[in-house]
Each structure stands twice: as C-alpha cells, then as structure tokens.
Amino acid sequence: MKVLHVSLTLQQVTRSVVKMRLVLVMVMGVVLSGCGITPKYETGTLVWVGCHRVEQNPSPEGSTSYLLLYPSNIGDSMYLQQIGSDGKATVTVGEKCK
Fold first, then answer.
1. What pLDDT is recorded for position 26?
2. Which of 75, 83, 84, 89 has its CA 20 to 30 Å from the CA of residue 44?
3. Where are the domains of the chain?
4. Closest Cα partner for 97 from 57, 52, 54?
C-alpha cells in the first residue's frame, strides 16, 4: 500500500480559505438580493441620504437637524435622515454638498 504525502504551505492553505470565503460571500449576496427583501422601516429609523447642507434649522414644518445632541448650525453637513414608518421622509433637507 502506498502512502500519499501531501505537503501544503501555510500560504497555500490561507489562499484557499480566503477563496472559499469570497465564494461564500458572493453566493450569499446573490441569494439575498434575489429573495426580494424589502426593508421595513420603523418610525424614527435613520437612513443614508448622502451629503446635504443645512440651510435652515429648524425648518418651516418644525423639524430640527441635530449633530450628536446639539442642533446643527447653518452650513453643517448632514448625511442621515429620519424617516417615518411609511418609508418617506417628512423633513426638509438642504442642497446636496458640492
């Protein structure tokens, strides 16, 4: 009976593990994107809206922009916006940052 001796270096093992993880992440991405998952928002959820500049604080409808715990100043940048349970924002945002 012959004994087959396989010698793998640590670098070869590491490469194969990284490749397997990459394939797993790609497969999971395809599966999850194909499932038709629609986000369900709760009132007060913050969503990414990109960079917007604060032009008036508080706004005419009464909403106020905050930076941490303090109201934002005119000209500050805002990246997150609070939305309602219907998935729509009722807060006025300023111009997009340039």
1. 85
2. 75
3. 6-37, 39-98
4. 52
User: For residue 89, which amino acid is it?
Assistant: A
What is the model's pLDDT at position 27? 84
Q: What is the 3-state secondary structure (H, E, C) of 16-84?
A: HHHHHHHHHHHHHHHHHHHCCCCCCCCCCEEEEEEEEECCCCCCCCCCCCEECCEECCCCCEEEEEEEC
The pTM of the whole model exceeds 0.85? no
Burial category of 49 from C-beta neighbours within 10 Å (exposed 0-12, middle 13-18, buried 19 and up): middle
The torsion defined by the Cα of 45, 67, 51 and 80, in degrees rounded to 10, comes to: 0
Q: What angle do CA 25, 45, 79 make, to 5 degrees?
A: 80
Six-digit token string for 59: 């706004």
